[in-house]
Backbone:
């Protein structure tokens, strides 16, 4: 069956469920005539209450959370021994013992150690400690923390009904702290959270997080069968028992660019397995979108993208970072999405026969259709996150500003921001812009909050590049790149909402023909090239194209006939704005391809690639031969390489000891140059 | 083991039994048959077309004693008496004539049903509604020449147009089948069947074999699109035990005999087959073979495939049978396995040689209460592991336990009610069992007395390890009695907007709990989605244990008030439940068979190639689809 056919089915089945699905697919808006009129939930500021009453009393409140109906209560340590004694883990232990000729006891010991390293030990005391300190910190850092209450109510019902998996977006370390804080506030069962093992390197803090419900996974353990078995069983045991909601990040790591990262499938397939094996009746997947008006780590991210290594997680680093407490980070919006029933998603799609023919405790490689299903679900969840992500007015300002460097008239900026607001809403973007707030105020407050990025000088808005003039050329480029990358982090939040119509616009410009087929073929090429840059549901290129066209038609930018697509007279503004919005990516990718085709030898390692491109682009910027600062972003560089590998333009070869990527450039991917 | 004990018990009881058998044989008048056997190698009495041999429990005119629009005997049914209390009528069952004081409340509580809201079935069959017979006159002439008894009477035809699926009964009560048999024939022996099949081939007719009519798989329904004359071949008059071989402990029996008659007649000679499916009062030996039946006491006696030694079947290609009556042979795939489960698609089973056992010396019921279903299943698993399962061991879940409780008759004396109270107090208060969670296993032991007692102790010891408490013989016995009576309940439910059915599966041990939970939950969920107003009654029991798994039986019923097309809704939910069973690693059927109801899952169940293998057998044996009931394939 073709991918798109499956995808279509995937969506059509998910539409059937009554309570469990929300506007799932990116192309459902085709049928949904008025996207802007979509009923959005009301937000509630949870800090308001905290500012009025005692934090201590709040931390000591009677906490009797709502729990899963089938829960058999047990202590964190009891879970560990259940996992250790489970048939699944015992089977792997015996296997390994046989293969390595060692006594099972030794391997069992090893498993125990893994469990001790991994396992959480949630304690109410620590939770209360966090409740207290986080109240203090959050009030200091943020103006408001807004939550859709209806989402919390839906979550409350879901938690009682079936095991729940929380899938928040990941932009900041604040994400998981905030989410636990939120669940505590609403008297819901606290989640157990899959955290990177790096946190354990932090003295005290690592242990504190463990007691607040974090469990730790190594960054890579593909080859370690024992680790995999113990880890998977640990997660599944908690899920089956309905011990607590399980929380992890589909994106795997914090997105440094505020664009949603392509999903990782490992943990998702683990939490789905109990349902495939019918050990649970159903599992709820809850997409959660957390957006920050100003991201705590914004400058750190920019440095990282430019190749200044990320500081290791350490307690002293955390203490040093406390100076940010005096800063203002604006508002956080948390949108808890409609719980999605895994059963509904899977209905009619999965052949369970393979699971019926092997004992359930044997480790089993998922079949191809299961893998495809897991991937589809992962993308679907990310698209839901994107759909519900609240966008602040500042995001619009940043997008306009980046197209009008070095300076833009303040009034013009306001005008364009308002125009962009309308366009964003037409495309289904979720902008939090209070009805009574005038545009000037909104833009002004954004500028105030982000004074480190932009400022108002003589009625013009310019990037805040204080001190750039002095210093060597290299230093100027670096500093400028920092600000631009920071600024683009905010514009990026718009991109996934804009990507389909924008790629159509780009394709129209590229094709120089109005024939639908040709435009589609360019669109499809762009979609493939940017497959790691933006989130596309796998295999539905045509649907994406149609949606893009539909949205452009909706804002009168294009007209379509049976065979042709052409821009309308007044549509050229929209089309050129959209293509300008994505130009940094087009140009960036072109630079990267140029580097690959001209500057590299036959083969290179992945390690050499990023610094290589960076130097190449850096030199061009110094010479003034390009203005594409964003091509310095290591994120873009990696995405471009990944896409080329996927398209077969670059081959990846593993050689002993280290990964080697061999480059052999083929024409189609390069035609972007 | 019981057999050896009985055999070595000494010559005198055995010879006494033989005498008894001879006497009873005289009384039944079978020497006539025996005499003919001596005269001709192919015996067939009743050449004159007069009614068959030994009068069975069910007459040729079934409607004389059986309900035409429901389950079982006319005189046996649940009613609400003038006081509004539930009562079971008739004298055939232990429950007969008893008042069930708490039953009404249970129905109201469980289904949200009320005695005020009643639906009534048509009082009798309306002959005018019955589709006119499509009959081939030449065939009728040929048929008359054979002197085989036949009928074109509307009642006779309708009675053989259905089994006991919910939708079939519903049609009887409120509508009419689109297609029913055109002629009913009653062969009285193998040769008659041979003649009928020959005629059917000659005139290109469709034959649908009919045994006891207890099918719950739509197997007896006539395909609507069948244009040929449909002949219902009623085997009920082929009901003699042809011979008993005490040396090899086998009996050759005509396939139309029904369970209760077979056991009754064998017991006169001191034997039994031990095959007791829940339908044994009505279902026939041939039907058991055709559907791969399973009996309650299979732990001692085996399922039908373990019991059968030899089968004779008449097919359009001719007669299929083996050349000897041996316990096992290695001659390629066992042809019996093409026949068992063929569901009337290949031919008519006419004679079966079946294993027999001496009647058990001693029978004892028992029951065990477990704190919850999980513990109960764990106990059954352990019993199966130790291979010490009694003749029957069943575990009912809490809902079914409460249901059984609601069917408790009024107690005779204050003393018994006091005792009941004490028992309840002990279990719930002293032992801390939650009456809304606990579940009950019922047991039946059989064999010689000493060994039964020993066996009983072994099983109770295991049960104790799983937190089980012995709950008395009486509860056990009532449990088994209810099995027979429970089938009558649907008719009562139908009167009060409650429809329901049972279905079954087999499943590996490690998936039993998950399957039970998920299927019940699925049913509840589907009901909700389909707009069923009251939570359904959805309950299960583990009815058979095997080395590698168990048989699970579900009951499912709901109040359909407010739903315009209840049967359709019911069928959709049942279908969803079956999908759930399959997704949980359960089988399509353990013993009910496939019929037409579960055909759609056959490919998934046995693979394309598997289905092709069965098809090719059908094509060879019956190329013109004479046996055109469209079951299975």
Residues:
């Amino acid at each position: 069956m073709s991918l798109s056919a499956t995808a279509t089915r995937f969506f059509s089945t998910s539409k059937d469920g009554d309570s469990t699905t929300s506007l799932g697919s990116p192309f459902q808006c085709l049928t949904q005539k008025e996207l802007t009129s979509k009923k959005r939930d009301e937000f509630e500021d949870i800090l308001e209450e905290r500012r009025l009453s005692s934090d201590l009393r709040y931390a000591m409140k009677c906490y009797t959370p709502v729990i899963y109906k089938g829960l058999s209560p047990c202590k964190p340590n009891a879970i560990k021994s259940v996992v250790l004694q489970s048939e699944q883990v015992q089977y792997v232990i015996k296997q390994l013992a046989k293969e390595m000729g060692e006594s099972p006891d030794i391997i069992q010991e090893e498993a125990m150690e893994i469990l001790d390293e991994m396992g959480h030990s949630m304690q109410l005391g620590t939770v209360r400690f966090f409740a207290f300190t986080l109240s203090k910190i959050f009030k200091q850092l943020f103006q408001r923390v807004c939550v859709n209450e209806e989402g919390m109510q839906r979550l409350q019902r879901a938690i009682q009904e079936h095991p729940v998996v929380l899938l928040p977006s990941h932009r900041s370390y604040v994400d998981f702290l905030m989410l636990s804080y939120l669940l505590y506030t609403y008297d819901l069962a606290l989640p157990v959270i899959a955290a990177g093992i790096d946190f354990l390197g932090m003295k005290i803090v690592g242990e504190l997080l463990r007691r607040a419900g974090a469990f730790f996974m190594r960054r890579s353990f593909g080859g370690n069968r024992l680790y995999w078995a113990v880890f998977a069983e640990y997660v599944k045991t908690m899920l089956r028992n309905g011990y607590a909601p399980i929380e992890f990040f589909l994106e795997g790591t914090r997105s440094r660019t505020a664009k949603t990262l392509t999903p990782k499938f490992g943990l998702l397939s683990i939490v789905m397995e109990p349902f495939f094996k019918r050990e649970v009746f159903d599992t709820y997947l809850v997409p959660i979108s957390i957006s920050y008006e100003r991201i705590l780590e914004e400058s750190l991210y920019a440095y990282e993208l430019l190749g200044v290594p990320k500081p290791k997680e350490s307690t002293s680093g955390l203490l040093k970072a406390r100076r940010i407490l005096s800063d203002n980070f604006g508002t956080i919006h948390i949108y808890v999405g409609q719980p999605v029933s895994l059963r509904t998603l899977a209905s009619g799609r999965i052949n369970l026969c393979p699971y019926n023919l092997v004992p359930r405790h044997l480790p089993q490689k998922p079949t191809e259709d299961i893998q495809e299903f897991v991937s589809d679900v992962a993308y679907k969840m990310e698209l839901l996150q994107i759909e519900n992500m609240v966008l602040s007015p500042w995001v619009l300002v940043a997008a306009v500003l980046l197209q009008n460097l070095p300076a833009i008239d303040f009034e013009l900026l306001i005008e364009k921001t308002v125009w962009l607001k309308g366009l964003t809403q037409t495309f289904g973007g979720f902008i939090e812009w209070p009805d009574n707030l005038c545009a000037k105020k909104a833009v002004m407050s954004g500028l105030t909050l982000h004074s480190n990025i932009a400022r108002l000088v003589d009625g013009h808005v310019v990037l805040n590049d204080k001190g750039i003039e002095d210093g060597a050329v290299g230093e100027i480029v670096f500093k400028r790149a920092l600000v631009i990358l920071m600024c683009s982090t905010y514009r990026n939040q718009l991109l996934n909402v804009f990507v389909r119509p924008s790629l159509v616009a780009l394709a129209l410009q590229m094709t120089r023909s109005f024939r639908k087929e040709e435009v589609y073929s360019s669109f499809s090429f762009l979609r493939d090239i940017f497959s790691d840059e933006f989130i596309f549901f796998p295999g539905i290129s045509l649907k994406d194209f149609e949606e893009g066209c539909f949205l452009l038609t909706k804002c009168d930018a294009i007209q379509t006939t049976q065979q042709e697509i052409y821009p309308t007279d007044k549509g050229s503004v929209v089309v050129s704005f959209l293509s300008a919005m994505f130009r940094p990516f087009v140009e960036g990718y072109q630079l990267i391809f140029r580097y690959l085709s001209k500057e590299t030898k036959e083969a290179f390692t992945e390690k050499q690639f990023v610094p290589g491109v960076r130097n190449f682009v850096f030199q061009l910027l110094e010479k003034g031969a390009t203005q594409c600062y964003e091509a310095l972003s290591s994120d873009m560089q990696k995405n471009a390489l990944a896409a080329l590998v996927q398209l077969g333009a670059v081959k990846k070869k593993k050689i002993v000891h280290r990964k080697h990527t061999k480059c052999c450039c083929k024409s189609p991917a390069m035609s972007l140059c | 083991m019981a057999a050896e004990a009985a055999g070595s018990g000494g010559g005198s009881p055995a010879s006494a039994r033989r005498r008894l058998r001879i006497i009873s044989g005289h009384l039944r008048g079978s020497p006539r048959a025996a005499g003919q056997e001596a005269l001709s190698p192919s015996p067939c009495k009743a050449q004159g077309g007069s009614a068959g041999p030994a009068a069975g429990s069910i007459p040729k005119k079934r409607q004389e004693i059986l309900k035409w629009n429901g389950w079982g005997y006319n005189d046996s049914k649940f009613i609400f008496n003038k006081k509004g209390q539930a009562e079971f009528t008739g004298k055939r069952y232990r429950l007969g004539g008893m008042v069930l004081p708490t039953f009404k409340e249970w129905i109201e509580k469980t289904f949200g049903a009320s005695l005020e809201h009643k639906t009534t079935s048509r009082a009798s069959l309306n002959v005018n509604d019955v589709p006119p017979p499509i009959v081939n006159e030449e065939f009728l002439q040929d048929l008359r020449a054979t002197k085989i008894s036949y009928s074109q009477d509307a009642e006779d035809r309708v009675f053989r147009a259905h089994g006991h699926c919910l939708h079939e009964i519903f049609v009887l009560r409120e509508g009419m089948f689109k297609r029913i048999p055109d002629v009913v024939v009653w062969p009285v022996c193998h040769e008659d069947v041979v003649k009928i099949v020959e005629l059917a081939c000659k005139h290109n007719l469709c034959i649908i074999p009919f045994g006891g009519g207890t099918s719950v798989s739509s197997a007896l329904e006539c395909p609507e699109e069948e244009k040929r004359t449909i002949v219902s071949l009623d085997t009920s008059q082929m009901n003699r035990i042809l011979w008993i071989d005490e040396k090899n402990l086998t009996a050759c029996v005509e396939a139309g005999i029904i369970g209760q008659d077979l056991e009754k007649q064998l017991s006169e000679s001191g034997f039994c087959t031990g095959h007791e499916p829940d339908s044994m009062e009505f279902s026939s030996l041939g039907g058991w073979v055709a559907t791969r039946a399973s009996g309650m006491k299979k732990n001692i006696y085996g399922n039908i495939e373990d019991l059968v030694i030899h089968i004779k079947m008449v097919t359009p290609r001719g007669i299929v049978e083996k050349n000897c009556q041996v316990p096992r042979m290695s001659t390629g795939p066992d042809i019996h396995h093409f026949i068992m489960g063929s569901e009337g698609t290949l031919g008519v089973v006419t004679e079966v040689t079946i294993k027999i056992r001496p009647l058990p010396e001693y029978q004892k019921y028992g029951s065990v209460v477990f704190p919850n279903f999980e513990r109960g299943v764990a106990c059954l698993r352990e019993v199966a592991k130790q291979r010490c399962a009694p003749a029957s061991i069943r575990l009912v879940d809490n809902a079914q336990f409460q249901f059984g409780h609601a069917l408790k008759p009024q107690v005779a004396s204050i003393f018994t009610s006091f005792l009941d109270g004490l028992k309840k107090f002990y279990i719930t208060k002293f032992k801390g069992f939650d009456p809304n969670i606990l579940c009950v296993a019922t047991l039946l032991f059989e064999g010689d007395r000493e060994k039964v007692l020993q066996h009983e102790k072994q099983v109770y010891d295991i049960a104790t390890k799983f937190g089980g408490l012995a709950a008395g013989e009486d509860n056990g016995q009532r449990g088994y009695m209810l099995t027979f009576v429970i089938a009558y309940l649907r008719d009562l439910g139908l009167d009060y907007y409650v429809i329901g059915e049972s279905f079954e599966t087999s499943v590996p041990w490690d998936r039993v709990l998950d399957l039970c939970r998920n299927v019940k939950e699925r049913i509840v969920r589907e009901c909700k989605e389909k707009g069923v107003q009251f939570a359904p009654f959805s309950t299960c029991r583990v009815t058979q244990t095997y080395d590698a798994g168990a048989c699970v039986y579900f009951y499912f019923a709901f109040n359909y008030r407010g739903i315009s097309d209840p049967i359709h809704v019911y069928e959709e939910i049942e279908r969803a439940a079956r999908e759930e069973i399959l997704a949980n690693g359960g089988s399509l059927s353990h013993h009910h068979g496939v019929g037409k109801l579960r055909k759609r899952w056959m490919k998934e169940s046995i693979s394309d190639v598997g289905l092709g293998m069965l098809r090719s057998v059908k094509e060879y044996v019956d190329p013109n689809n004479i046996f055109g009931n469209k079951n299975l394939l």
Chain A has 27 helices and 19 strands. Residues 1-37, 664-671 of chain A have pLDDT under 50 and may be disordered. Residues 15 and 577 of chain A are 34 Å apart (CA to CA).
